[in-house]
Design brief:
306 residues; alpha/beta; Rossmann fold; Histone, subunit A; six-stranded parallel β-sheet; 14 helices
Length: 306
């Protein structure tokens, strides 16, 4: 007698920043009476609310969310931890159906396909990299990474200090391009799951407008006061302060930008982030691009019933 293998089903609702993932995943979770796992590298940080577009407190009361506000702003979190945390939630739950919502593609890929077996940190190398940052700026390291491995460099932000350092560390330890090392190393794929990837297909002009609207919405909600409160408590050197929205406000508070310049920079940098995210996603043939929420629900229903 054969036994039927049981699979957990995941609807992965992703997309570039400001593509309404938070709202649509909330409606989707209500529709299917499901829980949401947030695949967002900023949602894990406590206190960072307005600038990260977290679900509202009311939404969090109505739907169970995972991996929101799980670490303090001075603590570290990465794709490796997300892979283990998200898989544990899914494996330990009696539920067989989850919504994965977020735009951090590295986290989504880590959940589904696993990460390469890690190599240890090299404190001596890291100290050298940090000294170079202090002397020449982070751009110097990013340019070196770009010369070594363009495929790796273009997938990350020029301001992503942790990953720039990590990729250079991999190169100097293994003498191999980071992209080659990671693609050739053994990965631990997530077993016994079925999934579908969905995203809203928003024209660039409309997305640019949505980004501008959201930035002014965050300003109106009190992004400046939130950033001031965080910096007064934790300082302006912690990792999440370097993210878009907060770093520009920090420059304003330091007198390096006017208030209007800071807002303009947030808009420009958010649009650049959306472009990078879309570049990654357009290469992913698994993503099904939907025209609206109704089509997202339609495709989700088909998947749920399959």
């Amino acid at each position: 007698m054969t036994t039927t293998e049981k699979f957990k089903k995941l609807i992965i609702l992703t997309g570039p920043t400001c593509s309404d993932k938070t709202t649509n995943s909330f409606y989707l979770a209500k529709y299917f009476n499901s829980e949401i796992i947030c695949a967002d590298s900023m949602h894990v940080y406590d206190s960072f609310d307005i600038g990260t577009g977290k679900p509202s407190k009311d939404q969090q009361k109505e739907i169970k969310y995972h991996l929101i506000d799980i670490i303090k702003p001075y603590e570290s979190y990465d794709a490796w931890r997300f892979m283990h945390d998200s898989r544990k939630i899914i494996n330990d739950s009696e539920k067989s159906f989850f919504i994965i919502s977020g735009g951090t593609q590295l986290y989504i890929d880590a959940l589904l396909n696993g990460l390469t077996e890690g190599i240890g940190k090299n404190d001596s190398l890291r100290d050298q990299f940090k000294k170079r940052i202090d002397q020449y700026g982070l751009e110097n390291l990013y340019n070196e990474l770009n010369e070594i491995d363009q495929d790796c460099a273009r997938k990350i932000s020029r301001n992503d200090k942790n990953r720039i350092i990590r990729f250079l560390e991999i190169f100097y330890i293994t003498k191999t391009k980071p992209s080659v090392f990671m693609s050739s190393s053994k990965k631990m794929g997530f077993k016994n799951i079925k999934y579908i990837k969905l995203s809203l297909d928003i024209p660039k002009k409309d997305l640019d407008s949505l980004i501008e609207e959201r930035v002014y919405f965050m300003i109106d909600r009190g992004l400046l006061k939130e950033a001031e409160r965080i910096i007064s408590k934790y300082g302006d050197k912690i990792k999440p302060i370097q993210s878009i929205g907060y770093s520009e406000i920090a420059y304003y508070l330091q007198g390096k930008l006017s208030y209007e310049e800071a807002i303009g920079k947030i808009i420009v940098n958010t649009r650049r982030l959306a472009k990078r995210q879309l570049t990654w996603m357009r290469k992913d043939k698994e993503v099904y691009w939907c025209k609206d929420l109704n089509e997202i629900i339609e495709k989700s229903n088909e998947f749920y019933s399959s």
